[in-house]
Amino acid sequence: MESVKLPKIQAEKIAESITNAIMEHRIAPGSKLSESRMATAFEVSRTKINQSLLMLSESGLVQQLPNRGFFVSSPSIDEAKQVFFLRQLLEPEIIKELLKNIKLKDIKRLHRHLNAEKEARASSNRRLIIRLSGEFHMLLAEMCGNRYINKMMAELCPLTCLIIALYDVPNTPACPEDEHTTIVAAIESGDEEQAISLMKHHLTHIEMALNLDGSNNNNEVDWDKIIG
Amino acid sequence: MESVKLPKIQAEKIAESITNAIMEHRIAPGSKLSESRMATAFEVSRTKINQSLLMLSESGLVQQLPNRGFFVSSPSIDEAKQVFFLRQLLEPEIIKELLKNIKLKDIKRLHRHLNAEKEARASSNRRLIIRLSGEFHMLLAEMCGNRYINKMMAELCPLTCLIIALYDVPNTPACPEDEHTTIVAAIESGDEEQAISLMKHHLTHIEMALNLDGSNNNNEVDWDKIIG
DNA sequence: GTTGGCTATATTGCATGCAATATATGTTTT
DNA sequence: AAAACATATATTGCATGCAATATAGCCAAC
Fold first, then answer.
1. Same structural domain for residues B191 and B94?
2. Which of A26, A27, A29, B103 could crosslink A74 through cysteines, CB 3.0-4.6 Å?
């Protein structure tokens, strides 16, 4: 079962708050994360910030360059595709596992989340919409009962937000309107096949709405391919 | 493609060396990892050790308890099953992806690894055998081209070594003799179906050789289940 | 002999300060 | 004007020291 609820370490809270900011596109991919500035902003010592950033770099959301500091990751097109590949693999399994012993309180939690998404859309809070959209998938992973899948998704979803920030086609409607609702409905009725099918399509829709064909993206040169 | 080869940070090297020790069963699950002792052992400051342990705790191999320090994880039976579940899911995909564009140098690398395993078996170096057995799977993951799958497997394999340390039935032969060789042969001949089938059976063999039925294991009481 | 409480020890949590490195600014040179 | 260099500034890397907390050892009480 779950492990005992430990008092969450301060560094974790800071890391979480940075993750939120990244998911909400309030920090752009590639941004430098200066320890001293963050230390004054969060009103803690640099040590604590360093620890938070170290955690985030281990989770892949942030990258550490020796003697240069921490930067928000900016996944390449290849990496973006790899993220979606893995999500297509994991998320159907999450649904299968979840359906094996879903509890009423899980359903309630899903509905609460859908409501939050609805409100965010109603108030056109685009930042919140993006984050909540990601967190929906993290919520499913959390409920599926496999802590390693959960952990993986807790890394892949923020990364997906970064990918959207990088490769979103500007004038696209913010996330396919209400696919989450239909997925929850399928889960609620216990229709595994339907839920999985909807999920797969949902993921495909997200990916297809992006510009991952390598053209027209204002990215830096990928030096890896040249010097590698 | 691969990212630029960064000068590996010292903390990473220390973390790697701890990981190796854990994989070789030279540090038992649950062991306390004292910062000060490790600092003197590695001849670095406590800060550096703290960073290494923080990385390891983020990867799940080590657990941090507030005000008590770091401990080597000891996965529960449930968690052990979750690890194998995820590996059964990922590793067939790794083979599929790997076969899509495997290079000659990859095959060579696999053979070098098989030789190393052979030597370790010849010299009855049980510790090395266990670590190399895990690293075989990490090698496949590394070559499959998906860095997120690679990262996941780089966490799951050391965890599996911990699980073996915890739930191994004492007088069992050390790892099903040469299943790695047959898997490589299947990969080499491009027989995807065969390679996947062998891999699945291999994983099943490993799991079945363990005592994961909840009986006869000299574990502590799982208080989580009681107070949770 | 086990439990409870007290003191002494060891360990973690955390901030700070200094050296090493990288970035930015401004000046010279071609 | 652009490039190259030199200086000044800012930032990271790292060790250390002190306060807060937990662990261990000890003695008394039951």
1. yes
2. A29
